[in-house]
Structure formats: structure tokens, C-alpha cells
Amino acid sequence: MKVTYYGQSCVEFDFDGTKVLLDPFVTYNPLAKDVKLADIKPDYIFLSHGHQDHVADMLAVQQQSGATVAAVVETAAWVRRQGVEEDKVIEYNLGGTLDLPFGKVKMVYAAHTNSTPDGEYGGFPVGYVFFLKGKTIYFAGDTALTMEMKLLERHNIDWAFLPIGGHYTMDAGDAIIAAEFVNCDKVFGIHYDSFPPIKIDKQQVEKQFAEAGISLSLPKIGETINL
């Protein structure tokens, strides 16, 4: 089981040969200039919400890969409006769980806002819990720290993908609390450095996590690590 980081909140999981992309945003991220979008060909795309820095490359990636796109109902409607075929879109909602060939994916609460790039209401922002063979992964999406995270503690999460940039989402301090809420000691940082308001001091953030006894992974853009 591997994950490749493409910057911002864009990550691609390789679940024993099935590739799952989250929040595709590469072309407009200056930090991801060395990533070749044409090389990204997932089987599934999951969207946490409709903001531009999470969906900008959805259509391009979907068209070149034929991926199935999953999202909350209203964001899924936007996906269809972009021309993605009906049988390639899965809409569902908070509390729902998809049973897919690689495992199960539960849609969970996120505290944020949501609109689509065309200015329409995007439904609720969400996170996802991936239940896989031998591992459980929490992808928080864009979120503030929220008590609802305590509900995920019972899932025995192995990895938590948490925003750490602050300003629009949790910062590192709140992400540490979030990791404690979900009872996970391995965090993969997302949603940082892409824009001036979310720049972080990596050395300071790594120190914060180390002092809390939580492992923090901050791979380089384009880097693949084993989970």
C-alpha cells in the first residue's frame, strides 16, 4: 500500500494495484510544476468538496483515465455538469459507506464551507475513512478541529491525513489534537505551503508533533511512500 503526494491536498493511494486520487489540484499549484498531470491515471477520484484548489484538475484526470468520481450529492452534480458520464459518478452523503473492489469508504463530517467553481452550492464538505485489508485511513479534507472527530476513534485508524496549514483549515496545533481525538499516532500533513496564508515553518511543526509523540510525514511533492 503506497501513497504519492502531489501537493496541497492531492494524494494518490495505490491499494494493491487500484489507484485512488483525492482532491486533484496540480496544474494551478506552482509547487507542483514538476508533476506531469498526464501520468496521473487513477481508477477512482474522491472529492472532499468543490473549492478550486481541490477540483481544478478533476475533469482532465477523469477524461484521460476514465476514473469513477465519488463526492457528496451536490458536488457530484457539478461533476456531471462538467461532462462526466452518469455511470462514472457516484453520489452519496454523510454517514454513507461505499463497498468498492478495494475496500469500503465511509463519508464523514468536515467543518468547512463548500461551493463549486461555477458558484453553485456544493453541499456539505466531507472527509473519508477508507477501510482496507489490514489498514484504516482517515482523509480529513478541509476542516477545522471538531468534536465529531471523536466518533472516529473506534475505527482504529492507522493513518490520518490532516490539514496543517491553518488560515482556511486546522493548523498544526489543532491537527495534533485531531490526531489525539481519532487515536492515531501517524499523521500525513496536507493543505499547507501552496499559498502565502498557509505557509508553515516545517521545522517548528515537526517539533510540535514530535513533542506530542505523533509521527508526522511531510513528503516532497511527487514523492511516494509506503503506508
Automatic annotation (TrEMBL):
Give the Pfam families listed for this entry: Lactamase_B_2
List, alphabetically, the SMART domains matched. Answer: Lactamase_B (SM00849)
Going by the entry's taxonomy, the superkingdom of the source organism is recorded as: Bacteria
Question: What residue stretches are annotated with the Metallo-beta-lactamase domain?
Answer: 7-191
Cross-referenced PANTHER family, in alphabetical order?
UPF0173 METAL-DEPENDENT HYDROLASE MJ1163, UPF0173 METAL-DEPENDENT HYDROLASE MJ1163-RELATED
In Swiss-Prot or TrEMBL terms, this protein is called L-ascorbate metabolism protein UlaG, beta-lactamase superfamily
Q: Which organism is it from?
A: Sphingobacterium lactis
